[in-house]
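hey so i finaly got around to running the thing on Transporter substrate-binding domain-containing protein from Rhodococcus sovatensis. pasting the sequence first so u can double check i didnt mess up the copy paste, my clipboard has been acting weird all day
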Amino acid sequence: MNKLVALLSLILVGILTTGCVATPALPPETEVSYTEPPLPDGAGPPTDAPEPGSTEAQCARPTASLRPTPAGVAAENAPPTPTVDAVRERGRLIVGLDTGSNLFSFLDPMTGKLVGFDVDIAREIARDLFGDPERVDFRILTSAERIEALQDSTVDVVVKTMTITCARKEEVSFSTVYFQAQHRVLAVRGSGINGVADLANRRVCAVDGTTSLRRLQRIVPTAQITTVPMWSDCLVVLQQRQVDAISTDDSILAGLAAQDPYLEIVGDSLSPEPYGVGIKKESEDLVRFVNGTLERIRRDGTWNRLYDRWLSVMGSSPGAPFPQYVD
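ok and heres what it spat out for the 3d tokens, dont ask me to read them lol
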């Protein structure tokens, strides 16, 4: 009996002791910070801000180029064509462009192939070189890489919404103008942004290495500019409301607006943007050859067909730009 009482006493003491033990404290909750989505790779503040008061070099008739080599010239009288001959011997035309300029050069979501107005301009050059528009190798470049790629012969030509400027003509050559764009602004409908004047102290997206960036820095010095590698990246950061607007050529903005019904192009033109095919400085024969292709597609209706295929969202065809020549 005494043993039973002792056992019950031990059990009761154990229960009481256990009931007095404090429950272990839960670990502290981790603080979670909710931030904006990360910017695209390569995005950030401008890296090539101009010197205060600086202006681009000036030149007479910046869009004038070399006249095409006349057709039907006898071989013994024809000027040498070393660059064209080298491209033909290789059997492929190497073209620099990007995949983020909707309407001009982008990946078809159904086929995964590069398509667009610039892509087809490049194919027309290949057609005249080889009799085959498919003999093209594309090299993907950012806007900031275009001039270097021409200078070191990484590519034969750049067909990438490249504006002809006096400053660029000091470094590379250009064809005649194959498309005339206008610098404007893209914003969210109802945002209160109705033109370039409304970009003061607002967040604006532009691509590094473009005339659009330099003009924005000059016209709206208080704008908070974020630069990205490609214009498709600007669309992403605008949709995420990490910027308030995009400012560049209306031809590029139209391609972005076509992907989002809540966006609209606003305001007057800041400046004309004449596009030319970029070519290495020493390759005069290739400049003349490309200008011959551009002459052909103006005459035979190909230019209008390409416009109707890719750019009809911008309205009816204005017709191909009239060429200017220096010789």
